[in-house]
Amino acid sequence: MTQPGKRAHRPSRPGKARPPRRPDTPERPPVDDPARRAALDTLKAVRADDAYANLVLPKLLRERKISGRDAALATELTYGTCRALGLIDQILAECVDRNMSKVEPPLLDALRLGAYQLLRTRIPPHAAVASTVDIARADHGSRVTGFVNAVLRKVSELDEQAWLDKLAPDAAEDPVGNLAARHAHPRWIARAFADALGTTGDELGAALKADDERPAVHLVARPGEVSADELAAMTGGDVAPYSPYGVRLEAGAGDPGDIDAVRERLAGVQDEGSQLCALALTRPEIEGPDERWLDLCAGPGGKAALLGALAAINGGTVDAVEQAPHRARLVEQITQGLPVKVRVADGRSSALDGGYDRVLVDAPCTGLGALRRRPEARWRRQPSDVGDLTKLQRELLTSAVGLVREGGVVAYVVCSPHLAETVGVVNDVIRKTGVTAIDTREFFPDVPDLGDGPFVQLWPHRHGTDAMFCALLRK
User: Hey, CA dihedral for 168, 174, 180, 183, is it positive or negative?
Assistant: First the structure.
């Protein structure tokens, strides 16, 4: 019989470790860990609110005045965990003694953060485990400390390579699946990359590996205001290898919004590949006037600003169409002082008069070409998204063909290498409208490894840019 005041002892079920009961002793105060707290709060926003880590984290760092080594650690933990999320969850599923759906989502965020530290950083295992236990205890109480400790101890029994050897598909039987697992990509995305590259070998591995590396910050100097050489001197960066207006800063250079040249509108934050695609629109010769340009899908405004600055030099104008009012306001802000008129409209039915000399269609897409900049996107996107997007892309490109004048040029641009979004859309519109494909490679001067054409596909592993696709068409 149980003595008064004593709890009956219940033996634990074999193989079913449970979080311990909250002890009667007082909890010790939580450890102040601003870097891991910012990372964890960002992971929660990504999971619960479909937020973008690259938008949430810089805001948190500014608000909480986190800088220096703490900011660098928070950045590494946040983006790294987001990139490796699928692999981390697969490993955690091997270490958690219940279905993963039974783990409270906020607690799972903490486990992911701890597992990333164990698998992909040089943080000592004991420190990775202890810091995760501390932050989980601060949020959930001491009832979870044993559970978190036990799970992470199991994770730490193998390093990442050993876990991959255990969990990844056989390389001989499923080379795409093996590389997808080893570089933390969903298999369908690895398959799309393989189709675009035409290989399942080493280059596919290099392309997937590039998505797991922290990208450099790319700046664009505003034409007519500052040169790339001057911007590089102002920022301590390097002149970009391909864009005449580009500058590259090292990864981890801090929040680019804090750069003086960006605040003063002398420069913008824009991937060099995006710069090259916008510039390509301006390069083919056309007969007659060349004064009216159109950006049919302008938000958030980076390409509209570059085109607007070039138009200002040549006495031209740019109409910028954006369907979402809040994104249209962003375009207005970034193009302030330039000959750019922003119109809130659907690019498929804009009610514009047409007759434009040059039209840019920077179409909504899966964003598979910018996974290194939006690390959570690889786990958020689904194969089912492609069908709806390609329908929209065809409609936008068809609209652009109707708005450009005879002899004018259309640039179709997407940040994706997925063949359905790139050559599939373009070839379909060419067949239906009779426009002519231009050999786009000619208008990416000095850029190597552009393939057989006539279109251009950029790649992070080849060019250090996002995987931008560009097709130039003449009406």
Answer: positive
